[in-house]
Amino acid sequence: MLTSPLASAWAWHRSAGTGLSADAIRVGPVVLAELPWPAGDLDDAVAALQNNDVRCCAAEVHAAFTVGDDDALNSWWEAALIRIEARQPTNVTVRSLPE
User: How far apart are CA 75 and CA 86, in angstroms?
Assistant: First the structure.
């Protein structure tokens, strides 16, 4: 759910600058409780995330919100994801969650 461009933008507008840097957010229980939930099905998003495909998961969650495509929003989210990926250590391996 939190991987979607729409949820990310919503959280950003709600909590921008509350993290450890000016471009970070702190997602606490209040923000999570207020987060809008998509009306559509999330099964494909869950499957994508289980396969470590964050971008596909994001697209599926965004589709579940049934708000249509938004190139500006998707571009903003993709740029943010690229910055996050660039900060990740190279020696970290992805672990799957237990079934």
Answer: 17
